[in-house]
Specification:
Blueprint lengths: L10 H6 L14 E2 L16 E6 L9 E6 L4 E3 L2 H5 L11 E8 L2 E7 L4 E4 L6 E5 L7 E8 L2 E6 L2 E6 L4 E2 L10 E7 L2 E6 L3 E6 L5 E5 L4 E5 L5 E12 L6 E10 L11 E3 L5 E5 L9 E6 L11 E2 L4 E11 L4 E8 L8 E7 L5 E8 L4 E6 L1
Antiparallel strand pairs: 1-27, 2-3, 2-28, 3-4, 5-6, 6-7, 7-8, 9-10, 10-11, 11-12, 13-14, 14-15, 15-16, 17-18, 18-19, 20-21, 21-22, 22-23, 24-25, 25-26, 26-27
């Protein structure tokens, strides 16, 4: 098995190095033919790259946070515990399933009795947390403004005070298991296991609209449109009028509720283009489709087919705004020890693979998170 990468990078290196393309891939060393210059000023140790939020091996250890560096095309592991001695993401029976950056904070959300932890996104120093408690099953976070947000869970949605990191009384407008959430305009879009997309008024969390049948969500394109999918439908929701436009998918968009993970859908920040994985009922996609808004023919065939013998795990795809690429997390197809064989692939927006970081270990990647 390949050695897991644990390279540590200093902030000085960020201002001196440039991205270089490598002609070959060595064991434990990534390749990304990008050639994008680095920032000349560093905001912190973890600014020039992105995070990989890992579930962890359920029952054997907690989830973890890794950092992929644009400077060296390498990955540094377990950065939360390294930056916060004595603090953990315990219990080992929880899974770290979601992460996002909002209001200059990185939110880490654990399922199955685990904690919610808020950190500085450049130093990873902990700022606050909701302690791990048996019976909690947090699933995602969305920010509303600088002082408040919402946490979804397997039992509904809770207000989250961002000044003292406490939760309020559960919302009565949405019940049951709720996963992904996103804010656009004056609305909050949430994905309910029982009702599909539920649109809430941001002012009072009352229900403005429900769109049934949706099981994969959410992403947002530069025009502000919110996107979700279910069955053979990919939908675009106008964030002002809530009007829905439907596009037919050439495959069935399956739900992630069996063992919930963030939706396998992302969008470019440069143009109105959506990318969605053709998952089975439990992740496992081998193809990714692209929809260019207004161009139905763009969905005719897969945009990306990942290398043979590999399949997506977790969310599996993310758009990298700094490099204008797609990052794709995979494991070896199959079960058991195959979950210890990982690849982080990079694709340009022509669908060409331009990078690959191979690494070993039972990480179970959940979602990439970008500055």
């Amino acid at each position: 098995m390949k050695k897991t990468i644990t390279t540590k990078l200093g902030a000085v290196a960020f201002s001196l190095l440039v991205l270089v393309a490598s002609s070959c891939k060595k064991d434990g060393v990534g390749v990304n033919n990008n050639n994008k210059p680095l920032k000349t000023q560093s905001l912190g140790k973890y600014d020039n790259g992105f995070f990989l939020i890992n579930e962890g091996w359920y029952g054997h250890g907690t989830g973890s946070v890794s950092f992929y560096s644009f400077a060296t095309n390498t990955k540094q592991d377990s950065i939360f515990t390294k930056e916060n001695p004595g603090k953990t993401l315990d219990p080992a029976t929880s899974t770290l399933e979601y992460g996002t950056i909002f209001s200059n904070k990185l939110f880490l959300v654990s399922k199955v009795g685990g904690p919610v932890v808020v950190t500085d996104p450049y130093s990873l120093k902990e700022l606050g947390r909701i302690a791990a408690v048996g019976g909690n099953n947090w699933q995602a976070f969305v920010g509303i403004d600088a002082t408040k947000g919402l946490l979804s869970s397997a039992s509904g949605i809770y207000p989250f005070d961002l000044t003292n990191y406490t939760t309020g009384a559960k919302l009565t407008s949405v019940t049951g298991s709720v996963g992904d959430m996103i804010k656009a305009g004056n609305y909050i879009f949430v994905l309910s296991q029982s009702k599909g997309v539920v649109v809430l008024n941001a002012s009072d969390y009352s229900v403005a609209k429900t769109i049934s049948g949706m099981v994969v969500a959410f992403t947002k394109t530069p025009d502000g449109s919110v996107w979700a999918a279910g069955g053979t439908s990919l939908i675009k929701i106008n964030p002002a009028t809530l009007a829905v436009t439907t596009v037919t998918l050439p495959f069935t968009a399956n739900s992630t509720w069996f063992a919930w993970h963030p939706g396998s859908i992302t969008a470019s920040t440069q143009n109105n283009t959506v990318y969605i994985a053709n998952n089975s009922t439990f992740s496992g996609a081998t193809t990714i489709y692209r929809y260019i808004d207004g161009n139905a023919a763009s969905l005719t065939s897969p945009f990306i087919t990942i290398p043979a013998g590999k399949e997506l795990y977790g969310s599996g795809i993310g758009y990298v705004p700094q490099t204008n690429q797609l990052a794709v997390t995979t494991v070896k197809s199959g079960f058991g020890v195959n979950y210890g064989v990982n690849d982080l692939y990079f694709y340009d927006l022509n669908g060409t693979q331009v990078g690959d970081l191979s690494y070993s270990g039972y990480y179970f990647p959940a979602i990439p998170v970008f500055h």
